[in-house]
Amino acid sequence: MRKTRNHDQPREGIAIAARPPYAFRMKSSSIPFCRLVLTSVLPLLPAPLPASAAPARGATTSAVAPPATGPGNGIIALPPNPVVPAALRTCAARTPTGLGYTILRPATGSRPASTDIALVSYIGYLAATGAVFDQGMNSPLPVDGVIPGFAEALQMLAKTGVARFCVPPALGYGAQGSGQLPANADLVFQVELLDYKTAAEVEKMRSTQAPEPAGQ
């Protein structure tokens, strides 16, 4: 979802493997938020199991089966297939700007503003072929630092909400395309809004976690 300039240029799912997002340009002001996300989440991960605590060879362990999901619920499996089926490449409604959308998991509450930083999980794929070109999990994205269609999409979601967005070329990369994306490509994004912070909140978090001067 990276922005490019001209001169260089309802209910159904959730994403995905973490890697640098393809379609947005991270601003330097949002980098501290990425670090804060990592420093906040990593301590909560379970420590590796010591060898002495590992089950003995031949020992059996009880397993809890995951809850079954009904057919036709439209949720994309994790990790996603390289090609998303045609049924998940369309949207049920459109905004006045031409952005298509289908609400997959409704949510209520406040929504991000254009100056906020959103924490999202998402998949991006081509409407024509379903080929996945981008995916990210727990990715902090500056709302005003992504393509227009994705920025509008983020501002339509409340926390925990999931939706599919159909981005026309005019709200994406237009006639110039970008990288592996062809010119005039219709894009589809499935987006889950996990959280968002204002610029002031990010600055406060950064100052709170700033290291103390040497000698203190």
From TrEMBL:
Going by the record, the broad EC class of this enzyme is isomerase
PANTHER family, per the entry: 39 KDA FK506-BINDING NUCLEAR PROTEIN (PTHR43811:SF19), FKBP-TYPE PEPTIDYL-PROLYL CIS-TRANS ISOMERASE FKPA (PTHR43811)
Q: Name the domain of life.
A: Bacteria
Swiss-Prot/TrEMBL catalytic activity = [protein]-peptidylproline (omega=180) = [protein]-peptidylproline (omega=0)
What are the EC numbers?
5.2.1.8
Q: In its keyword annotation, does this UniProt entry include NADP?
A: no
InterPro entries, per database record: PPIase_dom_sf, PPIase_FKBP_dom
What's the protein called, per UniProt? Answer: Peptidyl-prolyl cis-trans isomerase
Q: Which Pfam families match?
A: FKBP_C (PF00254)
Which species does the entry assign this protein to? Sphingomonas prati
Q: Does the keyword Transmembrane apply?
A: no
